[in-house]
Every structure is written in C-alpha cells, then in structure tokens.
Design a protein that fits this description.
With 453 residues, the protein is mainly alpha-helical. The protein has helices spanning 14-17, 37-46, 49-52, 72-98, 107-119, 129-147, 157-164, 168-179, 192-198, 209-212, 230-240, 256-279, 285-296, 307-332, 334-338, 353-368, 371-396, 400-406, 421-433, 437-447. It is built from 20 helices and no strands.
C-alpha cells in the first residue's frame, strides 16, 4: 500500500490482541474453564434482542415467502460457522509459531473470537438490506436541506458525516457497546478482541483528504463507529494494541482477525447468493453449476441426485476451498498484517479472485437488478425516508402533528432534555435501524393512512 501513515517499527502483539479484558469492566473476570470469555461473548449475542430481530431483516430477498431463502439471521449464523473454521485453522498455526499455549491461549480462542464477531457482523443493519442504509442517508439529507435554510447550523461537520454516510457497521458497534444492556458501561461488555475483530473499518466517518493522504486500503472504504462511540472504540483499540494510523484522527489499523471476519462474510454471500438465486428461479441450474464448480471443482455427475442436491454439494465444496485459500493467504501475510501494512481483503489475493468477480457480476445483473428485488429497494426508500423525517421532526419540533408522532416513539427512544441535536437524531436512527422489514412496513402504512391497524 502507498502513503502508509504507520510507524514501520510498530508490530501488534498476539498476546495483547487476545486479551480477555471486557469493555467497561475494570475487574478481572472469574475464569470458567468450560466457557471461555470469548465463548461467553457468542452466547450473549445469541440471546440478545437485536440478534433475534435479524430473522425478519433482508439479506437479498425482502419479505420472501420462500422459507428456504436466507434472512439476515441465517446468513449471520452461516458466516459465524465459516468464521469459526477460519479462526481455528489460523489459531492452530499461530499458537504453535508464537508459543501462545504458554500463555493459556488455544486455537479455539481464535475460532470463538472470529465466530462471535461474525455472528454480530450485521446486527446494526437497518431493514431492507443495504438499500436501507442508503434510505436513511437520503432521508437525513432531504430533512437537513429543508431545515437548514431557516435554522442555525445544527451539527458539527463530524456529526453530520455520521448521518450523511450512515453505516450499519457503526450502528452495530453502538448496539454492542451502548444500546444493549443499558445503562451498563460498555453495553454488552463483550471482550475487546471480539469488538475489535467485529470492526472491519476502524475509523471515524470524516477523514479529510489531507489525513488520508492518498491511502486506499480496504479498511477505509467505510467507517466503523459514530462520534458518540469514538471514545469507546479508542479504549478497545488501546486495550488490544491496534496501531494508530494518524495522530489527529480516530483511525487505526485492523485487528488481524477482522480480516477473517471479512473473509467469512465474503465467502458466504458470494456462494450462497448464487444458491438462493437458483432456488428463486433467477439463475438457471446450468449457470449455477458453471459458476460454483469453477471454485468447487468436483465431478457433479458422480452421484445420482436432484439439481437442488447438486447445488448444495457444489456450495459446500466451494466454501471449503475458499476457506483453504483465505487461511493460506493470511499465513503468507501474517507479518504484514501485524505491522498494519497489509490492508486488502484476503480473497482478492485468491486464485479464485476472477471467479468470485464473475459471480458478483452475474448476481448483480440477474439478482440485484431484478425487478422484484428493485421494487423492494424502492419501497425501502419510501418507508425509511418517511419514518426518518416524521420522527426527527417529532423530537425537534413542536407542531400538533409532531406531538402526536412523538407519542408513537417508544419511551426508551425519547431524548433527555439536556441532549443535543446530534444525540436526539441518533435516537431516531437507533429506532429505525432496529426495526424489522415487516414492522417498518406496517408503521409506514399507519403513518400514510393505508392501514389503521
């Protein structure tokens, strides 16, 4: 990578990267040898309300009546399984190379950290998939441009950037560290390694061109925390020993295991989107077989089975082969990863890179641009845009309609009297991003007079 802003002598240390310290807790955790701290992270996530709500959030196909098609919940579980395999395979070698068993660490710790981070990776995503994020951005822009003509500057540049480029990743970090299990400091009080591995984009939303200085690594493509949680992430980064990329900006190198979290997600959505698209009738069996077998590389006619079963077998073998590629690439670049110099997605270095690009191209044209999928995305803009503007006006203004809508906002999202505009708007995005697809649709219909139920 060019224009690195790192101290070339700095190296992250695995012992610190794996510390079991929890965010928000000062005292040491009582050891439970049957449940490690990282395994307890996983359990806390499974039993959390935001995780359960993923069952009714879009992965690709919104509000699908086909019960085979993956929701965000199923996707997160699958990513977690792949992440656990990636973590354990890497852990076995790292433990041996760095003699980490002398310090009480095991390969399963790596698997548990990656698995927990993967389980949470979509926990902050709003309804209607990635178009939901864009709908909130668009809703904020429309609202802000309207009010800013008649009112003073409402937000600082950094605060405004949080909403201009609203990120499910940052919302996820906010859920994990503040919104869930309040008023406990640190929210769910997950371990710092799990939170660091979860944060694929360890930077704030606003980084100037002079700060970036031409840097174009993978970890700056999005951002990972809002201004409201900047200090919390700084504590996580300091605890696990991430390398700071700039003295005057909240911007760090990735935790090494974040590369495995990203790879697990990339592996799953690349392969299973093809499988789901085939089950929905958007991609033919012959095309599906062609795409998946370029990676699976098996004799598809060896067994007498249905097309559906053949696709399942191709999917399983393709995922297996990509796991092997990701771990090999991680090992080959471990020292560059620990120094912060390596900042690419692992699979971009894979021998299957071109095949994955072809899969992405086909799914984009056959699935993401399909009329049925686009219709839902358009609806997402209408639904979330209206809900955002209605609720923001309700908490910031005093009209008769605003007062009525304010009563529709659950009490836990009511702002305190001493909160500034930024935190009041965050209350709204907390509420909206936490909605399921069906709840958001139902509420929109009520506000629009379509339904009075």
């Amino acid at each position: 990578m060019s224009n690195l802003l790192l101290d070339n002598t700095a190296m992250m240390d695995w012992k610190k990267l794996l510390t079991p310290k929890r965010l928000g807790k000062t005292e040491a955790e009582n050891p439970q040898f049957d449940r490690t701290p990282f395994l307890r992270d996983y359990d806390r996530l499974v039993f959390s309300s935001p995780f359960r709500r993923l069952k009714d959030k879009t992965q690709v196909f919104s509000l699908s009546t086909n019960d085979y098609i993956r929701t965000r919940l199923i996707h997160s579980l699958e990513v977690s399984c792949v992440g656990r395999s990636l973590g354990r395979i890497v852990g076995e070698k790292i433990i041996d190379t760095h003699k980490l068993n002398d310090y009480g660490f095991s390969a399963s710790d790596f698997g548990d950290i990656v698995s927990a981070a993967c389980l949470a990776h979509d926990i902050g995503n709003p309804p209607f998939g990635h178009s939901g994020e864009d709908a909130i951005r668009t809703g904020f822009e429309s609202w802000y441009n309207t009010v800013n003509h008649v009112e003073e500057e409402l937000l600082s540049k950094s605060q405004k950037a949080d909403f201009d480029s609203f990120e499910g990743n940052a919302q996820g970090f906010r859920i994990l560290t503040k919104l869930e299990m309040p008023p406990t400091k640190g929210g769910m009080q997950l371990t710092c390694p799990t939170l660091a591995a979860f944060t694929k984009y360890p930077r704030e939303s606003l980084l100037s061109e002079s700060t970036l200085n031409g840097y174009s690594g993978r970890s700056v493509k999005k951002y990972g925390f809002f201004q409201a949680e900047k200090d919390l992430f700084a504590e996580v980064a300091e605890t696990v020993g991430l390398i700071r990329r700039h003295d005057n900006a909240a911007w760090w190198s990735r935790h090494p295991l974040a590369f495995l979290v990203e790879a697990a997600d990339d592996i799953c959505y690349s392969i299973v989107d093809v499988e789901d698209a085939h089950r929905m009738g958007y991609i033919s069996f012959e095309k599906t077989k062609y795409l998946l077998n370029k990676i699976a590389d098996i004799d598809i006619n060896k067994h007498d089975e249905s097309d559906v079963e053949k696709v399942k077998r191709l999917r399983a073998k393709a995922i297996h082969n990509l796991i092997g590629q990701a771990t090999d690439i991680f090992f080959a670049h471990e020292q560059e990863i620990l120094s912060g110099e390596f900042d690419e997605d692992l699979l971009s270095r894979s021998r299957y890179g071109n095949d994955l690009e072809e899969i992405l191209k086909v799914t984009r044209s056959s699935v993401f641009q399909h009329r049925n999928v686009v219709n839902i995305q358009i609806a997402g803009y209408e639904v979330l845009g209206k809900l955002f503007s209605e609720f923001v006006n309700a908490i910031l203004h005093d009209s008769k309609k605003a007062k009525l809508i304010y009563h529709m906002l659950p009490k836990e999202y009511h702002p305190n009297s001493d909160e500034d505009t930024y935190n009041k708007i965050l209350r709204v995005t907390d509420y909206i991003s936490g909605m399921t697809d069906s709840y958001a649709t139902s509420l929109f219909q009520q506000f629009s007079g379509i339904s009075l139920g």
